[in-house]
Amino acid sequence: MQSLLDPAVLFFALGVFAGLVRSNLEMPAAISKFLSIYLLMALGLKGGFALAASGFTASVASSLGLAVLLAVVVPLMGYALLRRMLSGFNAAAVAATYGSVSAVTFVTATQYLESQSVPYGGYMAAAMALMESPAIIIAVMLANALRQRQAVPASHAAQMVGVSPSGAATLAGPGSLGASGSAPMGKAGPHLSVGKILHESFTDGTQLLLLGAMVIGLVTGDAGKAAMQPFSGDLFKGMLCLFLLDMGLSTARNLPAVRKQSPWLLAYAVLGPLVHAGLALALAWLAQVPAGDAALLMVLAASASYIAVPAVVRYAIPEADPSLYVSLSLGVTFPLNILVGIPLYTQVVLRLWGS
């Protein structure tokens, strides 16, 4: 209950309430963008300062390695299950959403750990950055494979009715494809190479800012930390409260779309993150990573992307329905993690680790 009295969580609840009662409260788009940039920059700096203080130890390598492993395993698990409920393209898009991570959920978790006096490695910001791209790459590769499988029977059918390679039908009767102008099987999505996806991921503004700020923090060390304390330390909590107020408003706007989803998908949006967090807990226990890092690994594994993945997937997998993966991640999983998940994961780790 104490975790719900945190100002950041309460501002998120205020945003949801304001949206549900149709208040005219809103955050200007320019300010929302500024808050995102600020949080990423401050988070990167904090991670760099912490890494400068600790150095690249075996514990750091273990935590980052587990993060990458989870970033690969979670979307593959998700796709295997979701394929039973959804089309291949929708399953790939939702799996990418739940295989990637939410920076805001991560930032909120770090604030919760600090409020509970639970130490964690600032380098976990690097873990968050590493976990964002693998799910997107896997989803695009799955979509490309689906398109190739669909292209084979489509090509065979075209040959059977006399369609030339250029797509023009040689039969001109009323029942021919040329006369009806029959549409292809879904929208034709782009075949993106892994190299292009990696380039887009690591040159994306959010990724570049986060990693760049981390490098600056690492290079400047204690002197940089002291100089930036008013910016990256003192202002951080207030800025996070403002951003979560805006996220609460966004969550409320997505709730009507949530009601249209099937009960099975809603169950996945609730239970899937718990399973992913459980997997992260087991791996962290086996590797004996520090308690704070284990809690953040659980949060990252349980989170879902509602910014990075939709931005890429809408272009890379246009066959998928955006209202599906955005409404589930932002309307169900994000508030679940903010209100219940973060304190739950942290308390489980503290009990198991005996902290």
Automatic annotation (TrEMBL):
The keyword Cytoplasm does not apply. This is Permease. The keyword ATP-binding does not apply. The chain crosses the membrane at residues 6-25, 37-58, 64-82, 89-109, 121-143, 264-288, 294-317, 324-345. It holds the Pfam family Sbt_1. It comes from Acidovorax temperans. InterPro entries: Sbt_1. PANTHER family: SLR1512 PROTEIN. Keywords: Membrane, Transmembrane, Transmembrane helix.
